[in-house]
Each structure stands twice: as C-alpha cells, then as structure tokens.
Design a protein that fits this description.
By secondary structure, this protein is an alpha/beta fold. Helix content is 32%, strand content 20%. The strands form 7 sheets. The protein has a 7-stranded mixed β-sheet, sandwiched between helices. Strands 6-7-5-8-9-4-10 form a 7-stranded parallel β-sheet, with helices on both faces. Strands 25, 26, 27, 28, 30, 31 and 32 form a 7-stranded antiparallel β-sheet that branches. Helix 16 packs across helix 26. It is globular.
Length: 913
Amino acid sequence: MSERQSDERAAVPVTGDELIETFPGYRNPDDISLLERPGQPASTVPSADVLRPELAAPLEHDLYTHQADALEALAREEHVCVATSTSSGKTRIYALQIARHYLEATARGDASTAYLLYPTKALSRDQERSLNDLYDDLGLEITVRVYDGDTERGRNRKRIREEADVIITNFAGVNTYLHDHDRWARFLSRCELVVLDESHTYTGVHGMHVAWIVRRLKRVLSYYDADPQYVLTSATIGNPGEHSSALIGDPVTVVDEDGSPAGPRDLVLWNPPPQAHDDGDERDGWNDGPGGEGDRGGDGIGAGDDLADDAVVERLPATVEAPRLLSHLTYRDAQTLLFTPSRKLAELSIKRASKHRHDNHYYTNPTRGSAIEPYHAGHSRKKRHGTEHQLKTGVLDGVASTNALELGIDIGAMDATVQLGYPGQRQSFWQQIGRAGRGSKRALSVLVAEHRTLDQYVVNNPDYLLENDVEDAVVDIENDAVFAQHLRCAADELALDESDAGTFAERDRLERAIEMWRRAGRLTGALETGVSYVGPPRPQGSISLYATTGEEYEVELAEGVDSSENPEMEPLATERVLRDFHEGAVRLHQGRQYEVTAVDHRPSRPSVTLRPTNVEYYTRTRTDVTVLDAVSEESRAIGDFTLHFGRGRVLVYHGTYDEVAIHGGKKKAQSIPTENPPLSMETQLCWLEVPQDVERALIEKYRSHSVPELEDGLAETAHLGYAGGLHAAEHATIGVAPLELMVDKRDLGGLATLTIDSHLDRAVVSDDGAEPGPGPGAGPDTGAGEDAPQNIAAAEATVREIAMDLERTPASGWFIYDGIEGGLGFARAIYENYEAVARRARDLIADCDCGNVGGCPACVMDEQCGNDNQPLHRGAAVDVLDQLLGDEDVETLEEHLPEDEYGGDRRPPLFYA
C-alpha cells in the first residue's frame, strides 16, 4: 500500500476490509463484495472568468467546471439542467444567477424575482437559511422567504408576496396559488428565474402533474409579460435533457460533466447470512417492510417480506442485519447514516441496533458510539432540525432515516452510509451514499440486501452499480385524465384562447377536452372568443398530485377516538383505497398501527375511517386481474417475437385479504372478503407475442409439470409448465424494470396468458372471414361500455368465451400495464427498452441459487401476485427469454416439437396475473 493510500485509509474510521474483518460472526466470502471507487480531484475555473467582479471577489473558492458551464449557458439565455452528483454545488449555480439578475435589475432601477420549487418542506427551510447566508456574504440585499402551507396566514403572507425577491415553495403550493395570481402580480411580473430543484423526483403520476402545473404557471407568467429562464437540478439520470424538456415544455442545455471533488469510497455489497426456519424472534424481520410509509405512499408491508417455505436459501432479513451494521460502525467511531424504506423501520432500527450492542459480548463498552436516533417526516419540524444540527456538529453518532435525508438537506459529512435494501434505482442509490464522504474525504458505504428481486440482482451483479448508464426518468403528458383536470384549472386562472393552441396543448386535444367540459357544464365559450371556467369554485382544490383522477378519500378518525391519535394522512387515491384501505385492513403509519373500520365510497364524500390498534398481524390484499379490449397502437419485431404497445381496459378486483402474523409470517386468517367494488382502468399496456414454434416446443418440453395445489381441474394440464414459464417471465420483467427505468414496480401490473387474442378488442381480432364482434362499447361481449362485465368472474368468463370461439390459433405471451387510470408512460418506456429489461430478467432467473422450479422472492415470486405465485416455472421462463434475446437458436427446440399442433391437447384459456 502506498503512503498516499495509507493516509486516505487513516482518514476514515472503518474501511471496507476492516468492516468485514471485525463484524462479529462467520461470513461466507461469497455473500460479500467489496468495490473500491477511486476519488477524483476538483476541476475548477477562476470565478472572475465567469462572474462580474462584485460577485467573484467575495467567493471563497473558484467555481467547479460544471458550475461555470451552467452559468455560461444561462448567460446565453438558455434553460439549463444540471445533472451532477450529491453535494456538487448545484444550488450555487442558480443562487449566483439570481444575484446576477439582481445586480442587473438594480442598475436599471428595477427589481428581479425568482421562484424556487422544492420537493419537500424540510428542504425548503434548509435552503432558505443557506441562500440568505450566501447573499449576506456577497453583500447583497436579496430577501429569500419560504411560502407554503406552513407559512403564517394573513399579513405575513402578504408581506412575502409584496416584498420578497426569492420565494421558495413546492408544486402543491403553486397549484393552489395560481388561482389568486392577481395577488402575486408584483412578484410574477418581475420573475426572471424559475428553479425546479431535485427535478429527478418528478416522475410517474407526480411528474405528470408537475409538468402541467409548470405549463399553467408559464401561461400566468406570460400574462404578466414575464419570460423567465428555467434551471433544473437533478441527480444523475439517464435522460436529463428529455426529462427536463418534458417537465417544462422547452429545450434545455444539459450540464452533466461533474467538476466537484470526490473522495475514494469503499462500497460493500452485503448479503445477510443464511438462517434456519426456527430462528425465533430474528425471523420477525421478514415482515417489517420495506415499503413502509414513504413519500410515494405505500405504508404497508413491502414486497419480498415472507419467504416461501420451500426456499432453499433463506437469509437473515436486512431489517435485522442493517441495524446491526449501524451499531457496529458507530461503535467503531464511524458517524453513520442508515437509510430505511419506512418510518416504522427507522424507529425499529434504532431499537434493534441498541439491543444488538447490549446483547453481544463483542462490544465491551455498550455505551460507546451509542448516540443514535431516528429521523423521518413524522417528527415535528423542531425535532428534525435538532437532529440535523446534532448530526452536523457531531453530537450524534448515527441516525436511521427514511429517504427524507436523501435530498440536499445539510447534515455535514458523514463517515459511512448503510442502506437497508436497495432503494430501487441507481440514481437514488448514489444519491444516498453521497451523503457520506463529502469533498475529498474517504467514505464507506454498505448495501444490505433484502431477499427480493432487485436486491439479489444487484448483489449478484456488482458491476451493475458501476455501469455508466443510469435509469431514465419517465414523464408522460399523454394521460388525458390528468390533462383534463389541469385544463379546468387553466381556464379558471385565465381564459383559454387561440394562443393556447400549440403552446398549452395541441389544438385537436385542446378542443376535444374543452368540448367535454362544455357538455359537463364546467366550461363555456370557444377558443376564438375565450373559454372560461364556470364550475364549482377553485378547481385547483380537486387536484391530487399523486392520483390521475380528482376523486380522493378523506382519512378520518373513528367516533370516540381522541384527536391526538389522528394520523394526519393525506387524502388517498381510489386505487390505493381499494388495495390497501378496505374495511378490516391493518395499516402502519408513522410507526403506529391503524385498523380501517369503515369505507364510504359515495361520490359526495368518499372517506376512510381509522382507529388505532395494537394487533400481532398485518393484512395483505389478494388481487385478481384481467385485461380486456386491448388495441395495438404500435408494434415491432424482436426476432420472431412481436411486441405491441397500446391501450386497453384492465379490470382489477381486490376481493379478499389475509391476516399475516408479524412474527413468523404465518397466515392467521385467509381469504376474508373486502366487499370492494371492482376497479376498471383504461390504461396503457405493452404485450409480447411468442412465436408458435417456440410455444409448441416448450409446451411439449414441460408437459409433465404439474401443480397439485391448483384447482378447477388444471393441476395436470399439459400446458401448465409453459404457462408457468410465461407467468414467471412476466413477474421477472416487471420486477427488474426499475433496473433500467425510474419506475415503481407497485405502479405496474401484468398478465401472462395462453390466449392473448381473447384479451384484445373483438373487432381487431376478427379477420380472414371470421365473424367480427360488435366492436368497442356496443354490448356485453366487448368488455367495454356500461354493459361490460362488472366483476372479475364475469370478465374472466367473457375472456374464456372469446378464447373458445376463436377460429385462428391464438398467440401466447404476457401483458405489462400501468396500474393507474389513463396510464403513466411506464408501459411505453418498457416497450421502448424491452430488450434491456428482458436481459435483466433472464439473468435474474437463471442466476438465482434458490434451486426451486417455482422460484423464490429473489427471482420470480411476487407478493402482489393475484394467483398466489402459482404456477411459476423458472426453466420455461429462461427458455422463452433466451429465444426472445437470440441467445438460443430456435433449432435447439426442434427435438421438442410435437407432430400435432397442440401437443395432443386443446389449448386451455389460462391466464395468470
């Protein structure tokens, strides 16, 4: 080891090698990978080369090259997206651009304002302090204020609107404040800069809403003759230019060559050790999360939490192992930040870390390095600020946090990070570990894997994290349900006219939506003369930034429960109520259990009623799914396979639920009715058709496979092994989608089927003289319109009836759909990146060491499976994906091709969600 390397290692309390050597207990070397990442020096440009002297002189340091590049692009009046690493000084870029505007405006006797939009209130307060400090250092009288739901109403709000130079808020606020834009006239008319900080967080449904709010904001700014520049700051993502342009509706200049310094880093991928079934209390970790109650909304028990009883490899849960590592690292004087996926786990991890320290004789001084606390949005602002300050000043040895500390809140430089489970995307992974080792300081980062698809893929393929390509962020503004909501708001804010055609939306789309709302009595007028809103006051209040439809369920406390028990939950989208908040459900929120005692689905006032509880189980909803009336809008060939993208109707029925013991994961009660209505969604889908020769050969190859547990006489059908392969491939494809794209697998669903044609629009399927069906919306046979099947049993019966009537041989394959009304753009992104996703899925299945034909939660099992993970067949799935990817020639299957068309059996219309 060189002298310089020795000095670097001495700068961190614990290196990766030392962690592996000192952590108590034997570890299999195959369960741990140590990756060493070299540091890089800063690349700088003299501030005076870019900034005017009065700004350059007070700056303590030169500009990093990416800061200089961005400021030069802004000087050319371009919109800019800065996509660089955590703590690379992105805030300094727009802060200095604001200062430029201020000096220029002052010189001409005018004023300049800026609108800064942050994803969280905590980040807003933190940035308010740092920006005010910077302008004090620069000697500039620039006033920065936060204006959001927590801002004192009345005189204080008016003073901010009329006096502040820089206003910090969030998109929920902008959505609301646009209604009263006349009160903001002074601020808006002088606005020269709009900033979308942490813009990579705006994806999926939330990203759709943000894109439309930006477009509404631009209309209002234009009304006040303001034409500001836009700065977007982002973590490193695969498509920063495309994503930023989708958000703001204009081209952007991307700055992604990072000039900030980076210290060397030891990255440890840690697979917890195997354990026996009868490990007692240690096994309770299977059921703690992930998935908790993070910002995206899932507050229940996450995927992969209880292992199949027949799994060959069963590992200690990350929910147990990660707190032990937090305890160990802080004991060895490494200030450590543990990231957890839920508030409950942040609290529980502190308890487990302390218990581990006191129960293990290795730690001779249990109080050493024991100042550890939880941190999450459920704590008061005062407590959160106190924790942040104690971290920054070194009073705390460690913190267990949700992703609330993933973003740019200033907590100083940590020595180490531990991640309880893979956070879902590489950009989030690097963002989290970037909280340790700031600047040139050496750091240690540990990823503790859960026994689930993404985690096991990452730890078994360490190079994945080091690949240059990062996931693409997905924003789709084609969702008509979201567009229609924001169109009402736009018309309420300013009358729509000819100038909005082609700017706010394309003319044809604009006119169709206006006509729809005119017929509904919400809009009046025409584009030529102006279209105004005439519906109930303040349509902005009906916008939910995390749902595609306006309908939301208010969360209430049961009668007689003390108001101090109020969980203060945000309103819930319909899809989430039906899945997670049915009557009898037990949900976790901010570390507490609540039971759903009543659900009111009446349109006049939909609501969910909760009461606190303390039971030894949680609930898991079972889901039945089928696809109806899919229509292909695009298709392309992948070898001899055909891939489609289009739209269709998905009928989802969360009909029953199980009560699952918190300790041990055993089911205490099963198939309890939810009394839910079915959920019908018009959404986006992609689907893959398998060539007939591949299908026929694989049916024959796996015809001896049976699943005795299956009912309805299907246990011994000759097609079951092949159908299990399609089902496993569908699960794996959805499971690995986040490895390529910034998608949440909970927003995706799938259906594997032996008869794709029976799920398509009847008018499209009928050809070659076959008798066509009546077409969409014409009657009960189509699965569309008012007379369509209204429950899952009727829908499945319709699909089977269509399958039996088909005169041509139907295709087999699987669907992937967006689980939100109108779609999210996720199915479209998977369609465009299908080969890369399929490659990940194939490797995941083939490389899993579970040894089970039916797989395990680390490869093809999915807790959301509507068929209880039956049938699944790993071998058949690998064969299908090998053929798709061209890894195996079709000739390799010739020996299995039967002489007769169906392998001797009539094809049953099997489909599995």
